[in-house]
Amino acid sequence: MEAHFQIKVIPTVLLLLMLLVKSNSYYAQQQGNLVVTENDYRLWGLLTQEHLSKNGDYVSYYMTYPSGKDTLYVQNTTTLNRIGFPKGHHGAFSFDNSWFIFKNSVQGVGIHNLSTQETNYIKDGRAYQLANTQNHVAVYNSQNKKLTLLDLKKNKQTSFNNIIEYQFNSTGKTLAIISKTKDNYRLQLINPSNTAVSKTILSSQKEISFLKWHDTQDELIFYEAQSLSSNPESGYILHHFNKTLNSLDPHTMSGFPKDYRITKTTISQMTQYFIAHNGSQVFFPISKHSIKNEESKNAIGSEVEIWHYQAPEVFPKLQAYHSYKNSDLQGFWDIKKGSFQSITSGEHPFSLINEDHQTALVYGQTAYLPLYKYQGHFTDYHLIDLKTNSKSVILKKHPTRTVGTSPSGSYYSYFKDKKWWLYDVKHSQHINISKNIPEALHKTITYSKTLPPISHPVWNTQETHLYLSGQHDVWQIDLPSLKTTKLTDGKASQLSFSVYKGSNTNPKSRNHLNGKSLTVPSQDNLIFHAIDSTTRHMGYYHYTPKSLKPIIFGDAFSDEVFSTPDASRLTFRTQRFNTPYTLMTYADQHKSVLYRSNPHHKNYYWGDSKIIQYTNSNQDSLQGILYYPAQFDDTKQYPLIVLPYEQQTKYYNQFILPSPFAQDIALVTNFTLNGYFVLFPDIKFRLRNLGMSAADCIIAATETALRNPYIDKNALGLIGHSLGGYETNFTITQTQLFKAAISGSGFSELFSSALSIMPGFGNQPELNYYEFGRLRMDKPFFEIQENYLANSPIHQIDKVDTPLLIWFGNDDDRVNWEQGLYMHLALRRMDKENILLIYPNEKHVLVEQKNQLDLTCKIMDWFDYHLKQQAPKPWILNSHPYKSKRSR
Predict the structure, then answer these.
(1) Helix 723-731 with 690-705: angle, nearest 10 deg
(2) Does the reported pTM lie above 0.85?
């Protein structure tokens, strides 16, 4: 292990002061003297970055508003010239950065010339597709089936009628179109530069559909129906075109399993439909005949359900497993051999096909059942050589969702025993690639008994290096030597670094998605995310082999980092709780403001936020966010509302729009604008003591906040949803601190909750969620009954004196609404103040705007009455309501 370069460590405090002095103007906006009313909420909009052109000269972004008066903007990153397109959306830059194409919900598809600033519209356009390397765009209207092909450079357009599908190839030099007349389908290839040149690939009375080009070659696949039937489940023939047409007919193809067929529905639900890199194989899913599926359903007792105690899972979960076993298969067509080969099976219905398309991992969900015996989700990963169809187990009893691929397919990556490993496919070897890293690579705050990684490997495209993020630092691993180099010095500077993979198409793609590899375009220009875990200051650094320099860092929240391919220019969004989104650019080691959103904001009073430090009864050091009320007056005291869940400080400095439809954390701005302090405490749970540890942290954080002389200790409220609803229910059994509380969709009785099955959690017994899930009870109730009793709000209900508002959706599929009924009935029997709200046809989170509005109003009514001594609304006093009515 070695350090790549010498980093001059600047003390954190001094660094922050330097950065804040330089960049404070980027964050701060002077507060005004207007009071925000509920009618003003609609004035604030959300800024979302969309694209950065490949040369970095232009950026596009949206402003979206509750009123629907949204605008799409395009801005020059150097001159700062900006143009807005009201009701514009889904924009894209042409390959040569000369044009910007977008949709407009009123005017059609817009074509904007970035040089002349002229905009023209294809009035009846509803969708478009850009050619990758040409100045062509196809504009489509699915209603009149009209396709307009535009040559942007020549200002020429050609129209095609009766088009039902279209797609450019990888170079943009060929356009495939499918047309449909009364009794005929036709697939043609068009030369966009000379539309008079075309070639008919297939003409048929049967449906032709599902065009898909090879990633880089002029090869095309598509479906043709096997009959004239309009039934969407009718079988299809798969065609492959590469100068000549090859076809796979399921009835005659060697190796194609009986009772299976190719269907459109299967393709709609799966993404594994593509041509292999080598062009000799086509990967696609197949589906079993519906009649067989009905037989399978009957086989497990559709009339009488048999719930056997020795069954590997409960009945509804077995139904799901059985459907996997008898439904879709993933396979491939070997064009040269003229045969079909299945990859997945009933036993192993899931697959991860490697990037070279030569091997695949297959796995199932039933090898380690019931889950409680193994305390987690585990599986065996089987490696299939797609050339020989040989299969071998490479990982046994391995946690799901921690396996990935490398860019060229030479390796599979996986996390085991707190270390990162590679499986070398060619040499059949397991390699511990993190053995020389001296810091933790796993998350320390987790509810899983198998510790998950902090992040997943990020590769360079050549597969000669990969990057791992640890507790503090980023490490480069050279392959195959395993030379390990520390690229940052986070521990010394009290920062935690991680690799940030920015992208014009998906800027948030740091997350491990479907096992596919994460790559960076250049190993000499990397972007690192950095955060100070004490102050929660954060930002981004630019790494080269010679230096590590901050792009932006300080007391603000920054995200949506977009980068040109060579990282010569970046754009990103920054914000604070009291300062709306600002779009910024970084180039040549300098940053500047592109656009400040919500310019009216400076005219209004707004709240502020600060990090507080506190300790629980175990002396664990914890944090919280304390939000200050708008129009704060240091001669007054204000009520405080505490909103718990789990790790809440991740929201520090995020600008949260006010909304009459707000729920959960989004309520914070509504509260501060209405004269409340708000506290988001971090919670550290203790094993087998979920409620006790949550209440301990909530009470400790609240008592710490009360050291602030501007908080009225006699006007404290508590509100939570889901897990936070449970924490609220339990905490008011342990303390008289709070004068009012609101619990949404929270469980209240651990015995009955643990012995339930909820569709929202995959129809698994809730005991799994308790024993080795988020509730951290570790053991079943019959082994530690005293813990379940001690952590159940219902079993301490006699200690409650806090007025409680409870709400649920009557179709909640995660927490049974009767958990709210238990609290209501118990408190009602003791004549303790409480109200239960049941919203019809709603699940765990309210989605109907009228219900969202009703709940938001009632939340404010409840706290205003109990914490501000305002007159109660009629719904609070009416003891004979027939149905809920809006309070305002």
Answers:
(1) 70
(2) yes
